[in-house]
Structure formats: structure tokens, C-alpha cells
Predict the structure.
Amino acid sequence: MSKKENPVVQNNEGTAKKKKNRLAEVFMKDYRFEGLILLILAVVAIVLGVLILVNTLTIDASIPVLGDYPKVFAWILVGLGVVSLGLAVWPFYKPSVEEVKRVTWPTGKQFLYDSIIVLLFVAILALFYTAIDTGFSALVSWLEGLR
């Protein structure tokens, strides 16, 4: 009988673990449009907060708590909006942060050498385009003189 009792205990523990995992799964799961919805709500919260702060949107004084302290409510809206905006945008930048950690940066000498090469290339191209522009201007002036 002890062999039969063990599976029952294991099932009960397994069931309890599954319930905890399901709850964690709901919070950890990435839903399809959660970032977009959070971004929209963040922008709406910031806009509403700013509208209240500049007195474009007013809160009736008869509304409990909010009517007494509209500026506090507005700042809370703006603060929550900014935090939500950060949470909505962070997943787009997270891979970039990981990539920047793996970058091998050039030494000071290599950076200076590469910068000089780039500046020389830009100067040569500027001279080239100036010469072509001057040549075409002279050609156009000469052709206009032939009329």
C-alpha cells in the first residue's frame, strides 16, 4: 500500500507545483501586443497628466481625492506613464545592450589613426566634388556663351 500512497502524494505535490507554475506562466508569458498596449497607455497617461498640469483639462472639485489634489494626480499620471514607457521600450533595447557588452573597442592609437583616415577621405571627396562642380559651372557658362 505504501507504493500506492506515494503516487498520490506525488500527484498532489505535482498539482500544487502546476498551479504555481501556471500563475507564474501568466505573468512571465509574452503576449502578442502587450508592448504596444503598454506603449499606448503610457502615452495616454503622460498626455492626460500634462493636460491637467497646464490646466487644459480640469478635474471637478466634487470628485473625492482627485478633485482636492489634481496636480498630485497629474504628476502621478506622468510618473506612471514615464515608467510604463520605459517598460514598453526596454525589450527593443535589451538585445543592443547585450551586443555592446561584446564589442571590442579600439585602442587610442587605432581610434586616432582611423579618425585621420576618415577625415582625409572626406577632404579628398570634398575637393573632388568641388572640382567637378567648378568644371560643370565653367562648361555651362561656356555653353551659354555660344548662344
User: Anything to note?
Assistant: The first helix runs from residue 2 to 28. The chain has two domains: 31-103, 105-147. The helical segments are 2-28, 34-53, 70-101, 108-145.
